[in-house]
Structure formats: C-alpha cells, structure tokens
Amino acid sequence: NVSMTVVRRLPKYYQYLKDLEDRGVEKISSKELASLMGLTASQIRQDLNSFGAYGQQGYGYRVLELKEAIKQILGLSATYDCILIGGGNIGQALAKYNHYRKDGILINAIFDVDPEEVARKTDIAAYGMDGLEDYVANNSVDICILAIPREAAQNVADRVVKAGVRAILNFAPIDLDLPENVIVNNVSITDNFYTLTYLLAEDAML
Amino acid sequence: NVSMTVVRRLPKYYQYLKDLEDRGVEKISSKELASLMGLTASQIRQDLNSFGAYGQQGYGYRVLELKEAIKQILGLSATYDCILIGGGNIGQALAKYNHYRKDGILINAIFDVDPEEVARKTDIAAYGMDGLEDYVANNSVDICILAIPREAAQNVADRVVKAGVRAILNFAPIDLDLPENVIVNNVSITDNFYTLTYLLAEDAML
Ligand SMILES: NC(=O)c1ccc[n+]([C@@H]2O[C@H](COP(=O)([O-])OP(=O)(O)OC[C@H]3O[C@@H](n4cnc5c(N)ncnc54)[C@H](O)[C@@H]3O)[C@@H](O)[C@H]2O)c1
Ligand SMILES: NC(=O)c1ccc[n+]([C@@H]2O[C@H](COP(=O)([O-])OP(=O)(O)OC[C@H]3O[C@@H](n4cnc5c(N)ncnc54)[C@H](O)[C@@H]3O)[C@@H](O)[C@H]2O)c1
C-alpha cells in the first residue's frame, strides 16, 4: 500500500495540475513539474509510480489524464455529505467557504448548543445538539467536522460515532480516543504558529 | 541540526506536558509518556535527546522542567507582534481566538481592502492596504498572517517582505515565491479534507 507521506503530497500535485490545465498546458515532463513544485524529478516519478503508470518515457505526463487520476485517488470524483458541529468562528469560516462544494464536500447541517446564534450568521440549516442522532439516522452523513471547544470534543465525538458516522475532521486541540475503524484527521492551526516561532527563535540564536 | 519532522512533533509534547502539569503530575517515565501519546518510548527518548539531556535514567522526566524546555525551544518564552492581512472568515476566526495571546502571539493590527467591514466585526485596529508600509516602518512586526484570496497573495507577500517583515503564515492555497531569508509556513485546511476523502475512498475499495 501507499505511505501516508506520499498521500499527503497528492493535494499539492492536484493543485499544480489544475493550474496547468487552466493555463492550457497539455503535457509536462517530470523535470518541468519538479522545478515548478520544488521537488526532484525522481521524487515525482517515485510518488506517481506508487499509484500506477502514468507517464511515458520521453513524452512526460498528460496533464488532464494525470489530474483526473489524482482526483480519483483522492476520492474527489464522489460527493461527501458532511455535518458541522460547532458554528462558531472556525465553523463559520468553513461553512462560508464555497470551494469545498466544488470538490463535492457538502456541509448540509450545523449542530450547536446555541443554534439560534448560528442560524443568524449562515444559510445552512442549524440544529440544537438534541437533534443529532435523529439527523444522522435519517440523512446521509459521510464526514463530521468538529469545531467545538476542547472540553466538549471527546463526548461529542463519542455520540457521533455511536450514531454511525465513520469519519471525523477535528479542529479541537485534543487527540480523540475512538475505535480503530473510525477515520480521524486532526487539524491544528496552532502548530503552524509554533513552527514559525521555533524558526524565528532559531534564527535569533544564529 | 534538528530535523523539521521532530520539530513538528514538539507542539504535541508541549500540549501533553501542559495537561500533565494541570493535573498535578510531577514526573513521568518515557514509557508512560509514550503510551499516553501513542508513540514508542525509544521515539520519545530520541526526539528529546536531539534537543539536550532532559530525563534521568530510572527516574523519568520532570514534567515542569521538560515543559519549560520545550516552550523555550518552540520560542514561546518570547512575544511576537503580528499583523493580519485579510479580515474575512479565516481572519476573523484567528483574530477572535484568544489562546494565541496566552502563547505570546499578539495580533495587533488587521489590513484589508475593506477595513470598515472588518472594523465592524472585531476590536483590533483595522486599516486599509495603503497604510501597510507606514505601519511596518513604525511598529514592531515579527509575523504577517495572510488570509486573503489566492490571486492577491503573491503581490501582497512581496509588499510585506519589501516593507521588512521576515516571517509569513500563509492561508492562501498557493506556494509563495519569496527570498530565501523569509520564513514561510503554509497552512492548508483543504488538504486535511482531502486526506479524509482519500481514506474514505480507500475504505470503499476494500
Ligand atoms: N479560531 C482559531 O483560530 C482556532 C485555532 C486553533 C484551534 N481552534 C480550535 O477550534 C475549535 C473551535 O474554535 P472557535 O474559535 O471556532 O471557537 P468558538 O468558541 O468560536 O466556537 C465554538 C462553537 O461551539 C459551540 N459549542 C460549545 N460547546 C458545544 C458543545 N458541547 N456541543 C456543540 N457545540 C458546542 C459554541 O456554541 C460555538 O458556536 C476549538 O476547539 C479551538 O480550540 C480554533
Ligand atoms: N474559509 C476556509 O475554510 C478556507 C479553507 C481553506 C483555505 N482558505 C483560504 O484562506 C484565504 C482566506 O479565506 P476566507 O474564507 O477568509 O476568505 P474571505 O473572502 O472570507 O476573506 C478574504 C478577506 O481578504 C480581503 N481581501 C481581498 N483581497 C485583498 C487584497 N488584495 N488585499 C488585502 N485584503 C484583501 C477581503 O476584503 C476579505 O476580508 C483564502 O485564500 C482561501 O482560499 C480558506
């Protein structure tokens, strides 16, 4: 199988290939793609070969064909029904960002302890937390996004999994303790700040 | 020097040690810390040894001492003056999140093409884009956060660097082309969604 390190590079390939397609470029060599993306040509060949044979010796890669292949590998040819729990600052930013809809990632409902406040700020249907289990039982839910305070995250995640949801995108700064068969991806915006402060502190010491 | 893979694990150590301190735990063995964090004891010893000798054979690590050491390595014992460019959805979420202030990461001003709209939603001073260079010349700016549309990001980043800012946290989905001596960290929320869709698509194929 393919390592997650390679998988995590795929979105970057996908972005660059979309840009090339927008610019009308039909084919590109691994060398040209490498210099564009700041990688080596052998890294590109190695990454892409782990998913199948795409390029041709001496010809390079067909941009449209490779883009579609990566889109397929990333699962973006399907659509995903999502619920968002927590319609606060982060939740609102996610709900209002329409690029996700273009990728087939649809936020269909928001759950919050204060649904009236949430409903004032967004057009997506907002529900109280007591409506969660009924909603999951009667609607398709592929992904649950958690944008709630850290203290509430484990309890709410347990409810979501018990209700039958199998994938969680978690913005709360806590490692959720969930069954093996649940896919969890933690997003930490704060860690990105810490990387900068580390590098600035290192700079200052040089 | 220390590899960035290890550096990117430090925020997680920092979070766990803060939690242990809150719970009044004074010392912890690498084995106990490993089981708590889902790592191996040898990984923990290897990571921490790359920054200096912290644990004692047979005794383990002093929680407070190790936490302070990691805080120091992450540069969090200093304060960082930040400006935020783009006071839209993401910008507002960052501006309103007060955990950063506790870490000494201070957002002191927001710049936007529509500063009146931004000023309505937050207490932080909001300026038009023509005030950028003057502000950087007359105030301390350690980090610039970019939360603007992709099309505007390169031009704005060039202005920010020309004005003298050396570190950028970029939320726009584009790789900025900047001089070597500028520290840039790209945050991609979208990539986290793609990781989930990849894993869901993989699951569906099994
Ligand atoms: N805003 C940021 O920049 C940022 C950065 C890093 C991490 N985070 C994390 O993201 C999460 C969301 O942050 P935010 O800034 O959007 O917070 P917020 O306070 O603006 O929003 C939280 C929302 O969750 C709701 N809520 C609270 N308890 C709940 C519960 N038990 N069940 C359901 N809903 C509940 C609140 O009513 C509110 O609408 C937090 O865990 C935070 O630590 C935020
Ligand atoms: N919201 C999300 O969930 C999300 C997810 C992934 C990536 N992003 C990226 O983050 C960035 C910000 O997203 P958002 O959702 O906050 O967008 P937004 O449209 O809500 O906010 C953008 C802000 O930038 C300002 N602006 C536009 N052009 C400008 C310029 N030339 N100079 C200065 N200010 C300018 C606008 O007035 C607005 O206040 C975008 O690049 C977006 O692609 C957002």
Greatest contact between two chains: A-B, 54 and 54 residues
CATH architecture of the largest domain in chain A: 3-Layer(aba) Sandwich
Q: How many helices of chain A?
A: 11
- The Rg value of chain A, from CA coordinates, equals 20 Å
Order of helices and strands of chain A: HHEHHEHEHHEHEHEHEEH
CATH topology of the largest domain in chain A: Rossmann fold
Helical content of chain A, roughly?
A: 40-55%
Q: Tell me how many strands of chain A there are.
A: 8
The small molecules bound here are: nicotinamide-adenine-dinucleotide
The overall pLDDT of chain A, averaged over residues, is: 94
Describe the strand arrangement of the main beta sheet of chain A, using strand numbers. 5-4-3-6-7-8
Write up this protein.
2 copies of one chain form a homodimer. By secondary structure, the first copy, chain A, is of the alpha/beta class. The first copy, chain A, has 2 domains: 4-73, Winged helix-like DNA-binding domain superfamily/Winged helix DNA-binding domain (Arc Repressor Mutant, subunit A, Orthogonal Bundle), CATH 1.10.10; 80-191, 3-Layer(aba) Sandwich (Rossmann fold), CATH 3.40.50. Chain A is 50% helix and 16% strand. Chain A has 11 helices and 8 strands. Chain A has helices at residues 4-7, 10-22, 30-37, 41-49, 63-73, 89-96, 99-102, 115-121, 132-138, 150-163, 189-205; strands spanning 27-28, 61-62, 80-85, 105-111, 125-127, 143-146, 167-170, 183-186. In chain A, the strands form 2 sheets. The first copy, chain A, has a 6-stranded parallel beta sheet with strand order 5-4-3-6-7-8. In chain A, strands 1-2 form a two-stranded antiparallel sheet. In chain A, strand 6, helix 10 (150-163) and strand 7 form a beta-alpha-beta unit. In chain A, helix 2 packs antiparallel against helix 5 (63-73) and helix 3 (30-37) crosses helix 4 (41-49). Chain A is globular. Chains A and B meet through helix 2, helix 6 and helix 11 of A and helix 2, helix 6 and helix 11 of B. The complex binds nicotinamide-adenine-dinucleotide (2 copies). One nicotinamide-adenine-dinucleotide sits between chains A (85-91, 112-114, 129, 147-150, 152, 156, 171-173, 189-190) and B (93-94, 97). One nicotinamide-adenine-dinucleotide sits between chains B (85-91, 112-114, 129, 147-150, 152, 156, 171-173, 189-190) and A (93-94, 97).
